[in-house]
Amino acid sequence: MGIEDNNMRNGRGLSDQWADSMVVRPRTTERSITVHKKLVLGFAISILTLIVVTAIAVLLSVRFEECAGESSSRGANGSNAKFNGSRDGNGNHKDEEAQPWRHLRLPTSLRPRHYDLRLSVNMDNFTFSGEVNIEFECVNSTKFIVLHTDRLEVEKVAVYSDNKKPGVMRIHRQFHYPGNQVYVIALHRELKPMRTYKVNITFDAQIESELLGFFRSSYILQGERRYMAVTQFSPTHARKAFPCFDEPIYKATFRVSLRHDASYLSLSNMPVEASISDDDGWVTNHFSRTPRMSTYYLAWAVCNFTYREVTTDSGVVIRLYARPNAIQSGAGDYALHITKRLLQFYEDYFKVKYSLPKLGETRGARG
């Protein structure tokens, strides 16, 4: 009995332990499910928080860029007012509307009519100085005169009114804008539509050697190097020689005067109208007024060339200018006579007479 009682006790003890263990398992499962729910809920909250933080960051970055753009444009406007129109390229669309020099093309508010150009050419140090009077018409009201210039040192500027009350107009400020190769003249009061005005500009520049604008070249004659200065304005290089509306759409007439050492001769589109010799050994050639044309058609040369000429049946004089030794050897005779034949052919074919009083051609300087 004692043994049985012990076994019964032990049996009951084992069954009770097994029962207890069977009772614990459901509690562990519920706790595990509860833990998983917390993990899922925490993960979902983390994702939602990340989305919210990302959205806030994007909104803040956009707002920061807008503020930075506004502050940079305000800074650019401030520098423009302080330094006569900023030379950097910053600014928003409103700035471009208020500042026409920032556009790649010239504003259409003004239209040139006539250029009176006077140049003094120094072949000893390859420099030239000039003065240009531009007569222009105002199409739309504006306070700005924007002209093309490139590598020109502007000395003086004056603007005149050609209306019933002629006089000098006050200039508020003037400055180069190298980014678009323009010179800007800002006036105190607006130019009025349908009225004509004049701008007078004096300037200095170098006779470059890059074969563009007004440049120099050379050739050898009898063992001596000779120099010449000629122009190449097409397509947009007249601005290297004088301030102008250097776009093909802006057509005007031109009157050119060239002053240089008397040992040189000068050529241009039109015949010499008058030649005046100075006491200092220099000469000034005044050329006739050209037809209405774009700036890149204008041309001139200061050189020691000689020439041969022929005359067409209609009376047009054709001259070929070249190095003296090339003219003497007859190297240009074919070009001269074929030009005459071609000109006569086109006059007969189109039944239109050549419109200019002369036709000149210069041949290559190097030999």
Automatic annotation (TrEMBL):
GO terms for molecular function: metalloaminopeptidase activity; peptide binding; zinc ion binding. Keywords: Membrane, Transmembrane, Transmembrane helix. Residues 90-100 have a biased composition (Basic and acidic residues). Residues 70-103 are annotated as: Disordered. GO terms for cellular component: cytoplasm; extracellular space; membrane. Residues 70-89 have a biased composition (Polar residues). The chain crosses the membrane at residues 39-62. Residues 112-297 form the Aminopeptidase N-like N-terminal domain. It comes from the Eukaryota. One of its GO terms (biological process) is proteolysis. This is Thyrotropin-releasing hormone-degrading ectoenzyme-like.
